[in-house]
Write a structure and sequence with these properties.
single chain; alpha/beta; Rossmann fold; Dihydrodipicolinate Reductase, domain 2; 2 domains; nine-stranded mixed sheet; six-stranded parallel sheet; 17 strands
């Protein structure tokens, strides 16, 4: 059941997708006062949508997206669907007068992303991208410190994610995430988050050089029939080299098929100091001229207090979703329309998509690719 708070217009949301949608998004929305999740659908898995609806008390279980958009009283949709569906679903939502929260990566390419942004603006509807990792406590506090000048002039930013989570082609079988045509691949799934984070911390990226690989070439088909395998067409490993418009450089290195990989680490080095976020979510820092050692930086309660969950994505999602709900609520007070964009918005998603496209072009041409001015 939704939380209630007197005086707040109710915001009614439909959810497309029952994976991350049921694990994080629906529970997250229901923790925000004045929000009701009134409809759910799962492409090709109606029984799963029924289970989720029963679990969370959702009234409408829809077989098609068109049916979901017609649910009475619906104000907004959240697209927790594969990337190839984001473009048509967003355009249909805007045509129906619904606000949109879209999963990342935003689209299959920058042309689709640009059309999605233009449709949101033409219809005066709120459109956000679910880059909830901006609000992970250590990352959010790092943003505050960077904005205050902790690093001085950025020299280098390094992000690595080395994991064996997808190393076994049987326990991590074939699905859309391993299908390039569906928008699969970890450059989009993880790289989009890291690119958004670097833009949020250090400003625009001016150029990119990339290597993109598929190390595990085949994966089992999850039908329970032994011996069935399918070719993987999407990446599972990549390295990006970046140049920032304001100076400094960056690297992003990801592999999800490396057994015993130690996870995620972020290191930011500048003329005046250093910040490091380790795999446990600790933030360490050091300042030039002070104690010449890295020390643990306590994260203020404004970033870490409140929600607790077994899923670390819940807290940052609720932070982002609260901004989305507030934007929808403001629009409802103005007749359902708004010219306001709330970050991370579709313009952020478009820029990330341009960088993803540039990275793919670089990998094909084996050279640096410059980005157009934002």
């Amino acid at each position: 059941m939704a939380m209630r708070e007197e005086g707040l217009p109710v915001v009614r949301i439909g959810v497309v997708g029952t994976g991350f949608g049921s694990r994080v998004q629906i529970p997250g929305f229901l923790k925000i006062p004045g929000v009701e999740v009134i409809a759910v659908m799962s492409s090709g898995r109606y029984e799963r949508a029924e289970e989720v609806a029963l679990q969370f008390g959702i009234g409408a279980v829809c077989r098609t997206y068109e049916e979901l958009l017609q649910v009475p009283g619906l104000h907004a949709v959240t697209l927790v669907s594969p990337p190839y569906q984001h473009h048509p679903m967003s355009l249909a939502a805007f045509a129906a007068g619904k606000h949109v929260l879209c999963e990342k990566p935003m689209a299959l390419n920058q042309q689709e992303a640009r059309e999605m942004l233009e449709a949101a603006r033409q219809n005066s509807l709120l459109a956000m991208i679910d880059h909830e990792f901006r609000y992970v406590p250590a990352r959010a506090y790092a943003k505050e410190l960077i904005s205050q000048g902790w690093l001085g002039q950025l020299y280098t930013a390094s992000i690595s994610m080395i994991s064996g989570s997808s190393a076994d082609p049987q326990t991590r079988p074939w699905g859309w995430l391993f299908d390039k045509a569906a928008g699969g691949g970890f450059l989009g799934a993880l790289g989009s988050h890291y690119i958004d984070g670097l833009r949020n911390w250090f400003g625009e990226i001016a150029a990119v050089s990339a290597e993109i690989e598929t190390q595990v070439k085949q994966r089992a088909v999850p039908t329970g029939q032994s011996g069935e395998w399918r070719k993987v067409s999407a990446d599972d490993s990549f390295s990006l080299h970046l140049r920032f418009a304001k100076g400094g450089r960056g690297t992003i290195t990801v592999s999800v098929v490396s057994p015993f990989g130690e996870g995620e680490r972020m290191e930011f080095y500048g003329s005046q100091g250093t910040l490091i976020i380790d795999n446990a979510g600790h933030l360490l820092g050091g300042k030039v001229g002070e104690d010449q050692r890295l020390g643990l930086l306590p994260i203020p309660a404004r970033y870490s207090a409140g929600l607790s969950s077994d899923d670390p994505r819940l807290r940052p999602f609720v932070t982002l979703a609260s901004d989305f709900v507030a934007g929808v609520r403001t629009a409802l007070k103005q007749g359902g329309r708004t010219d306001r964009e709330i970050a991370p918005g579709f313009s952020d998603g478009l820029r990330v998509q341009q960088i993803l496209d540039a990275a793919r072009a670089s990998a094909e041409s084996n050279c640096w690719v410059s980005l157009p001015p934002s």
